[in-house]
Amino acid sequence: MVLRIPLSDDRLTATKTIVVVGATGHFGGRLCRRLVGERNTELVVSSRSQSSAQSLAAELQSLDPSATVHAAQLDQAAPYFEKALKDLQPDIVIHTAGPYQGQDYRVAKACIDCSSHYIDLADGRSFVQGFGSLHDRALQRDVLLVSGASTLPGLSSAVIEQFADRFAALHEIEISIAPAHQTPRGTGTIAAVLSYCGKPFEVLCDGNWITMHGWQNMRGQRYPTLGWRLSGACDVPDLGLLPGYVDELKTVTFHAALEAKWEQLALWTMGWLTRVGLVRNWTRLVPAFRWLSNRLIGLGSDTGGMRIRLAGIDGEGLNKSVTWLLTARDNHGPEIPCSPALILARSLAAEQLAIRGAFPCLGLISLSEFDTEVAELAIDWTADESS
Ligand SMILES: NC(=O)c1ccc[n+]([C@@H]2O[C@H](COP(=O)([O-])OP(=O)(O)OC[C@H]3O[C@@H](n4cnc5c(N)ncnc54)[C@H](OP(=O)(O)O)[C@@H]3O)[C@@H](O)[C@H]2O)c1
Description:
This protein has helices spanning 26-35, 50-63, 81-87, 106-113, 125-129, 135-140, 151-163, 187-195, 237-245, 261-275, 286-295, 339-349, 367-373, and strands at residues 16-21, 41-47, 68-73, 92-95, 117-120, 144-147, 169-178, 200-205, 208-213, 219-223, 227-233, 251-256, 304-313, 319-328, 357-360, 379-386. By secondary structure, it is of the alpha/beta class. Strands 3-2-1-4-5-6-15 form a seven-stranded parallel beta sheet, sandwiched between helices. A seven-stranded mixed beta sheet has the order 10-11-12-7-13-14-16. A two-stranded antiparallel sheet has the order 8-9. The relative contact order is 0.17.
């Protein structure tokens, strides 16, 4: 866990400019609504469309008339992107414009070039896993770059850190997320989860690397607060990162458990169509999926959850497990992926985070910081320990 530097009351930090790339998106918008009015900050909300950025800026300004909010047009695919970002003179850039699968590090490199810190919500496995390649360049410019400051691996690694001391050896980590059906689906998220539908990926299982396929490997998952759900395997950064992060780890799995069984079965079937070669890539159908899923959003509940089961050996050589179970009610679940990025952005803006370099978001936030960040939301968790 990276220590925060306490600020004395009389030491006010200089005003920091925080630029959000993808601010009009599902998670970008939520993040901006929670960030607006942060002490000693100015917020720049960006979109590929100037008018969309201006509408969002006006909405945020009305939430907090004392805040300073600007609008900017930024397209990370445009030739002018680096110059346009530099002109904004950012201190911190939060990049929420997924999908990250297939993206390069253009936004992060542009941040290094203008000596800005950088945070993203990436869930692309190779994107997050390869992020350390920017480490030396980030050190040279004295900036912090963090990838995956979201549920995975930001929050998941905070949970592992919290309970790791219960184990002499931690052998198994099983993670699952069960979103509420009423959660709106952003284009970036749908594109991300369809990008690996039916595609093979490697998973550490009982000490061996085995192949799973996206949305296959169907399992039943019991959530005490949600009931039984079907779940499918997803290709997420934790699968590649945790074996190098936790000594003696033998198994790490991730499953997503959708509330609507028909939706889970549809993804499982689509995965098979890809495996047998009938459909190579589902991402062309992202707009259709978004249209359909947002029309059917009323067919489920506003409650979702996340479970992480840790298992291994305790100090006396006995089997030990910890099951961490989060429940998010009142449609507050989508606030979770924004929270690790917000924690880091607030710490950087307050000059409380001294670490520099480029890292995947492993152990960079603590579970108590997460609790503080979501304290006013209908989000709580329990941990059940057994020997
Ligand atoms: N790591 C995790 O645990 C985790 C959890 C949840 C979500 N995520 C990821 O978070 C990402 C965001 O998801 P979301 O549902 O919020 O997506 P979204 O609603 O589609 O938002 C992304 C926004 O990015 C902007 N954008 C698109 N292309 C751009 C470009 N070339 N340059 C600049 N901006 C661009 C778009 O705004 P304009 O059209 O206005 O430009 C769009 O609204 C996804 O990739 C998702 O997988 C990760």
